[in-house]
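As a representative case, we now present a protein record of this kind.
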Amino acid sequence: MNIKALITEKLEKQGEVRASEIMRISGFSRAYVNRFLRELREEGVLVRIGKANRTRYIPANKELIHKEKSSITTVYRILKNEDLNEDAVLRDIVKNTGIFQGLKDNVSKILEYAFTEMLNNAIEHSRSEKIEVRVEKKKNNVFFEVRDRGVGIYNNIMRKKHLGNILEAVQDLLKGKQTTEPASHSGEGIFFTSRVGDILTIESSEKKILFDNLMEDVFLMNSAQKSKGTRVIFSVGLDSKKEIGEIFREYTDDAFNFSKTEVTIKLYDKDASYVSRSQARRLLIGLEEFKTIMLDFKGIDAIGQGFADEIFRVWLGKNPDKEIIVKNVDENVDFMIKRAKD
């Protein structure tokens, strides 16, 4: 049986052909059929579209190829975390799917940045043998999910930095510039990813933090996830007007150093009364790396004299080159801050 002739005949009649179809008709093995499909690809007769069980072959026609790739708007991969490169994964998605086709330039840049940063975190920090990625373009937005089965992001931070609990690990992560691998990472990835899109969710160790830029808020919730590892979900609207360069400039100085951070106080301990100096000291750990610190007091109606004094007199006295900006302060909190500064 002439396998090449069979393949080209089916291709002309149907517009596409699958290896499984040729195997069924001919009775030959997949390896044998794939040999002829590979030869026809090398001869420029056909091209392969899709991966794994979705693989099909179509005529090597530029318009057909573009049309077929445009129809692929969902990608799911299970990646072996061995010599894995996030840029190579991104290039494969850009080249072989329609997910990036037609995206506005600013949205494309946001998606590229966020995807590579979050996948790189999983590659280098999770110690997971496999990493799952899913990317999908929908009617109004494009999103991706990166999931590993490793040590878990909050557990990793807690162990490497000798922190007392998960909430302290969450707060450390939120500050930015904090990393468990300072020799190879700046600690900026999650900070900027949480600001460039519409939604970022980081779920691990039965805790879920949600950065909701549509509502301009951050939420810390309990998670039903019981499995090991970390799950990250990111979403950005197709009509987003955000410019990634503007967001970088907002938090960097004239020398392009990451110099400004933002800390949401209430996420440090949801049920705490903010009264003690020790609470303030824990909150301030690592913030000496920044020139400007924005403290968000949303949802807090009172702070103690010791808490305020430690931040606004003692710490600033030791760090006179730093600036602390406050927002969402009610009159009681504002009174204690001004009292500490006087």
Observations:
- The chain has 13 helices and twelve strands.
- The domain at 73-243 is CATH 3.30.565.10 (Heat Shock Protein 90).
- The two ends are 93 Å apart (CA to CA).
- Confidence is low (pLDDT under 50) at residues 182-186.
